Structure formats: C-alpha cells, structure tokens
Amino acid sequence: RLLRICRERFGDAPIDLVIDDASHFYEETLASFETLFPLLRPGGLFLIEDWAWFHWRGIETDWNDRKPLTQLIFEIVEATGTGGGRFIREIHARPGFAAIYRGDAPPEEWNDFAVEQSIYRHPR
Q1: pTM here?
Q2: Which of 1, 56, 86, 118 is the most buried (most CB within 10 A)?
C-alpha cells in the first residue's frame, strides 16, 4: 500500500524526505524503510522517529512483547558498513530520531532491497 500511495502522489519522481512516525514497532518500520528508502533521491533523508523507546524509563511494561526498534537501527548501521555508503550513505542516531541518508546506488540496483540482505557478517 505504501508503494502504491507514493506512486500515485509522486509518480517516478524521487522523494526528498520520509518521516516514519507511525508504529514504533520493528516489523512495521522495517517494511516502511525497505519500501520507501529506495524511492529517495541520492542523498535523500529517511527519519525514524522514537527509535529508542525500548530504553525509556517508565514504560517497561508497554510493548514488552515487541521487538525494539533499536534492533533495526543496529541492522541499518551494519548495512551502512557493509555497503561502503553505496546504498546507505550514513546514519545519525539522536535521542528522538535516527536520520538515514540514501547512497548513490542507481535505481536498477535497488530491486528487492532488504536490510538483512544488505548486511555482510564474517563467518564465526
């Protein structure tokens, strides 16, 4: 649905900015990131708001059955290191949001973009 909405609003024009301020949950935010991040122009910005909720005092019983967004931020950092900035140019983590900048990889290299598939880990 996200892809359809973007195509209806923007056609094939690249997007400058996406602010994900919806779910606070891993699976939903991952789906948003993997769908919309490739649509950004090179250097475009994707913000994940409230990524650090798992580390806030006073809500220890809220969402305790949910995977924290911290895990997604770690995975994006891994993908940044793996790709040498080609897909994810850089990431900045702030207390209220994480800012992820799109790299310069051409559109044809974004087919079926998945964060997990963008990470290389040395065998142990």
Answers
A1: 0.92
A2: 118
CB 51 within 8 A of CB 72: yes
From the list 13, 39, 46, the residue with the least C-alpha distance to 107 is 39
Q: What is the pLDDT of residues 51-68, one digit of tens each?
A: 998 888 887 777 778 899
Query: What is the distance between the alpha carbons of residues 124 and 121, in angstroms, rounded to a whole number?
Result: 9
What span, in angstroms and rounded, lies between the C-alpha atoms of 57 and 111? 40
Instruction: Name the token pair of 40.
Output: 């950004």
Q: Which residues, including other chains, have CB under 8 Å from residue 38's CB and lie 6 or more apart?
A: 102, 107, 110, 113
Judge contact between 101 and 88, C-beta under 8 A: yes
